[in-house]
Amino acid sequence: MLHRRAFARKIFLVSSVACMASLGAIPAAAQDQTATNAATDDQTIIVTATKRETSLFEVPFSINAQTEAAIQRSGATTIEDLSRNVAGLTIQNLGPGQSQVSVRGVSAGQIVRDQPGVKEQVGVYLDESVISLSLFTPDLDLFDLNRVETLRGPQGTLFGSGSVGGTIRYITNQPDPDRIEGLVEGNLNLVHEDDIGGHLKGMINLPVGEGVAIRAVGYYTRYGGFTDALREGGGVDENVNDGERIGGRLAVTFQPTPDIRFTPRIVYQEIRADGFNRQESYNVLANPFTTTRPAVTFDEREHFLLLDESFEDQTLLADFTASFEFGGVELTSVTSYINREILVSRDASALSGSVSVDLGFPDAAVLLPSNLVDRTDLETFTQELRLSSTGDGPFQWVVGGFYSDIDRFYRQRLPTPGYDAFTDATLGAGTSAAVANGFPADSPYNSDLPYDIRQTAVFGEASYDLTDRFTLTAGGRYYDFSEERRFVSGGLFANGDDQTDRTESSGFSPRFIASYEASDNLRLNAQVSKGFRLGGVNDPLNLPLCTPEDEAIFGGFQDYDDESLWNYEVGVRGQGRGLSFNAAAFYTDISNLQVTLDAGSCSSRIVFNAEKAHTMGIEAELTAEPVDGLALSLSGSWVEAEFDSTVRDGSGNVIGGIREGNRLPSVPNFQLSASASYSFPVAAGAEAFVGTSFQHVGSRYTQPSDQENNPRAFVSGLPFGGATGAEVTLLDLRLPSYNYVNLSAGIDWDNGLGVMLYVTNLFDENALLSFDRERGGRARLGYNIGQPRVIGITVRKRFGG
């Protein structure tokens, strides 16, 4: 339920922008859109993947760019939607604001809420500002975007750490001093046939003086829920994972001369969700094996809760971009500040209850509601300064420096009212106070982890045309990184830690590219490049929760090293006669791959370094317009991603499935998407369209260990509620492939009005996205699941321009 004041503030923001957009109906002379705002010019897509404006066709490495028109026509609202048309891009949706991204099979597995030290493998940017954050990369609204660029393969030279697999860039439309324009969009949708979602969005661009313009965007989205919570006593709460997103952007451009441009901007977004897209198979508090409690068998899209759950993310981004062009050289400065507050509130009653059973607590203690509260406070400052050539000569170059300072404070609490009394009664008076370590009462686990992360880098890249058709490019980036963190813990489930760790590293990442223009419509590329991901320190194991075996296996892994890889690829890009295509074949040699695993019963996650791994594959994208009005597209990728080394414990046993020949986690071997749309006139000034799309995602494993002894028999080992503790839950941990079919139809009028009807996931497939386990399965077993069928209508109206 929204607070009244917050709801009023949201309606005011969106309605204000919508009303401003209507001002765009004031007649204005039509002007050609600037290159910054134009995604296409005579079918040429302009991108900035090389930190200089160039056509998509001329980019000498594998890249996908989806324009604003393509995004609108597809109905995409999230990066997960966009990924369906991008070969080699994999999105693991763990809920609003919690997507995990991998490119070309470079994946460390599922990163979970209590791993704040793990770094990203794919860099994500909003224009020039880096916004990626492991697990919590902002789920930005796609409204009023000029395009989304997906740069495949390591981009460490120009984009630094976190771009080891690739880089995704959201490019917004910039303020335009030459035009008045506005856009309003509304949507209403039905999720899983019984919950309502929708959105209202608006944009206005206004010149306010000579060379000065303002562009404002506001949006509000309500997400319909689709998972149900079974409650103690037999009740059911439906659609508990609904939520909302509200946000806006305000940018101002000052261009006093054609060669000088300043753009300050503020971006603010809130995401709130009332639950998670989780489906359970077993819960220690609700399962088919209990006899003194009601036996529970879960259906699709159901899980068990004693407490409500929630997710909140407030993101503020302020950046300032300035550019000065002089004598064939452009100087660009990008200053960025990010402040984020993230709250993840989960029902941890099954986790705490499973520990209570192990400790011999009475049933009343096992059933105490327990709330795991994770808070992340983040402040990031970055500064980039670069020089680049702007002329048309054979020699082109860019050189720059980068600095970032990140303060990240992660806090975890487990408030469980009444728990201390059971602790003292069972384990001895004063036990709870003795292990508190200064943290609150009735919270059996607590931790504080402040991080201070700093990085400096210098980079450069240059290309030279040896002939009119043959170009060589070389570049590199030197980085110096330091991370300092303190770990303090307390409570019955913790160790009472208080330790400070410091990690430092430095290195150099080069890139070499050869590009040959075989004809005006065909280009061949070859590339060798290096990417890197910074290392870190694992949190201490929660030893009071560990079995002796798990303590022995996982207790010796503290630091993990930088991950690096060398990428080798060849590619081809062509266009002409209504046809465009690009394809690439690649091989990636990975050293010290950072792999995330559950530490068995310890309720801890740790990162290992797998000494050697590789990915190799083929990716291709094809678009065609064989006849007027008919647009076809096909994209797909085949990837082999495997370990080339084995990690063993002191007894020689393989740890966590990190075995030579096993697959890297979360990555399908095969992905395919295809779409077709047909446009045709239906009246003067009106064009109708119909379209369909198909997406296939192959089978995956959530963690490397899921390939071992699979299908797997999970023995609960917890005699509670009449269960003996020997009952078995048999699960196939190989996540099955899934297929989505989508339909759309609509009409666009010349006056800027457009209407679209659509259905996503037509056959209501219940896609299993990742395997979800707590305490190695002793507390809970289940899956994170995809969105069901959605039926909706979108109406938009553009003014001016």
Provide the low-confidence segments as ranges: 1-42
Q: Compute the CA-based radius of gyration.
A: 27 Å
Helical proportion?
under 10%
Please report the total strand number as a whole number.
Answer: 42
Strand content: over 45%
Q: CATH homologous superfamily name?
A: TonB-dependent receptor, beta-barrel domain
CATH architecture: Beta Barrel
> Average pLDDT across residues?
87
Question: Per the principal axes of the C-alpha atoms, what is the gross shape?
Answer: globular
Number of domains: 1
**Oligomerization category of the chains in this entry:** single chain
Written account of the structure:
The model is unreliable at 1-42 (pLDDT under 50). The radius of gyration is 27 Å and the shape is globular. The protein has one domain: Maltoporin, Chain A (Beta Barrel). Strand 32 and strand 33 form a beta hairpin. The protein starts with a helix and ends with a strand. The chain is mainly beta. Helices cover 9% and strands 53% of the residues. It is built from nine helices and 42 strands. The strands form eight sheets. The chain has a 22-stranded antiparallel barrel.
Short description:
With 801 residues, the chain is mainly beta.
